[in-house]
Fold this sequence. Notes:
Distance between the termini: 55 Å
Keywords: Signal
Number of domains: 1
Oligomer: single chain
Number of helices: 6
Bound molecules: 2-acetamido-2-deoxy-beta-D-glucopyranose
Protein name: Rhodanese domain-containing protein
CATH class: Alpha Beta
CATH topology: Oxidized Rhodanese, domain 1
InterPro entries: Rhodanese-like_dom (IPR001763), Rhodanese-like_dom_sf (IPR036873)
Strand content: 5-15%
Amino acid sequence: MRQAFVVAVVLALALLQAQQSAAQSTSNVKLIPLNTFYSLWKASQTVNATRAQNITFLDVRPKTLYQLSHVPDARNVPSQDAKKVAAQFASRKRGVDPTKDVACYCTMSSTAVSACNEFAKLKAYAKVKVYALNASFSDWVVAKYPTEKSGKIGH
Ligand SMILES: *[C@@H]1O[C@H](CO)[C@@H](O)[C@H](O)[C@H]1NC(C)=O
Ligand SMILES: *[C@@H]1O[C@H](CO)[C@@H](O)[C@H](O)[C@H]1NC(C)=O
Ligand SMILES: *[C@@H]1O[C@H](CO)[C@@H](O)[C@H](O)[C@H]1NC(C)=O
């Protein structure tokens, strides 16, 4: 009886801890609306953008969708590769400076958040802002914001 109680308490604590770490792991990604995301992108495009404006935009959709159309200058990092690419960026293996802010978008904001979280949870990104678009790429298209077809594949 007493043992069962102890087991139950231990399980409850483990569950609580798991929930807390799940909440923490998404808290470093800032979900932003479409107009804010566009403003960040626009600022990054200005000639002589300042360091704070110099953001790495990541399209975390599959490569086939990226090739059809994407946010100009965004790199393609399909969400399933985000963890690997985040580590490569952190070690500067892809010519991307990990001291730059990162902004992800996808067809679903939840995927953008989880992909960008692979960056946010790395120590190398502890001091930068990691954003995720709280909308879909099709909302960007509907808003008639610029798109392009060619670009850098991020991995
Ligand atoms: C950007 O910086 C370069 C080099 O510092 C300078 O020659 C150029 O005039 C600047 N352009 C603008 C639009 O400020
Ligand atoms: C912006 O980022 C690019 C690529 O990482 C880098 O070459 C450039 O020097 C950066 N510019 C500023 C103003 O930080
Ligand atoms: C994200 O978008 C949804 C749906 O439009 C909205 O309800 C929610 O408040 C937004 N979240 C943030 C953090 O902006």
